[in-house]
Amino acid sequence: MSSSKPPSPFSSYLISPHELHTALQSSNNPRLVPLCGTWFLPNDPQKRTGRATYLQRRISGARFFDLDAISDTTSPYPHMLPTRQHFARCMSQLGLRNADTLVVYDSAELGIFSAPRVAWQLRVLGHRGAVHVLDNFKVWVEEGLPTEGPGEPGAWEETVYEVPAEGDGQGSGVVEFEEVRERARKGEVGRDVQVLDARSEGRWKGVEPEPRPGEEQCSGGALRDFFVVLRLEFGLIDIKGLSSGHIPGSVSVPVPELLDPKTKNFLSSEQLRALFEKKGVDASKPIISSCGTGVTATIIDTALEKAGYSPESQRKVYDGSWT
After folding, report:
1. Pick the catalytic residue: 36, 90, 218, 291?
2. Could you tell me the pTM of the whole model?
3. What is the C-alpha end-to-end distance of the chain, expressed in Å?
4. Which residues sit opposite 243 in a β-bridge?
């Protein structure tokens, strides 16, 4: 597999609806593929699913990236990173190639939610082609750009997606449970490393419930042990299952604070920098983005990238996060 990176028609990670629409009309981009990464929380009051939303309305030619299926299906925790072999099989079934330029988008209802996680996952797992996030499909629909649906999309030919080598991608951008646990126990969070939490302030404070089952419904003693340590040492609160609260020393950065309340686009680079400064985020220290299960943590990571606030080498995402 060639190590050279194919060129992208876009100059930035986040792209606008009109940039994508223009590029899709051009014959110069035959392997530019929109990717619907819609995902909803398990307690969604409307019982929506990503696939149903994709079938109802989508960008023409888009494939559906199932965040739950393209994950480590052997793990008791939701949508943990899959093996590279499983990832490649799923990408083949979607008719994708390792050199394709992919633009990930969310539902029109949410604007920005899970697309940054899908894009981050593609990059971490070594997709060689350029990966971008559409900012956003809500604006695409409101501006009257073309969509297709409802109904099943046309068939595409299955491809051979080359399995990325272990050294490819941004594997160093992932932090695991054991490291976060040790840093919390040693009091390093907030001193030597910063943990930014994307959940609501109520969940962070421990006064709102988590939308997932408690640790007693998960296998593996390590997680239970960690919750015991957190409860005894830091006084966390149990609310109907999974303990509510936060990693000691972490900073609350709820996702809505990073987005325009009307358009759901990311705030401007200047606004994002001002917000991180107000939160006391030190750009010179390593940053770990966290959330409930590793989905919206990537919104913080994307906001840091857009703001130019912290270099990529200093940023990691806690895969699995609070759950």
Report:
1. 291
2. 0.88
3. 36
4. 238
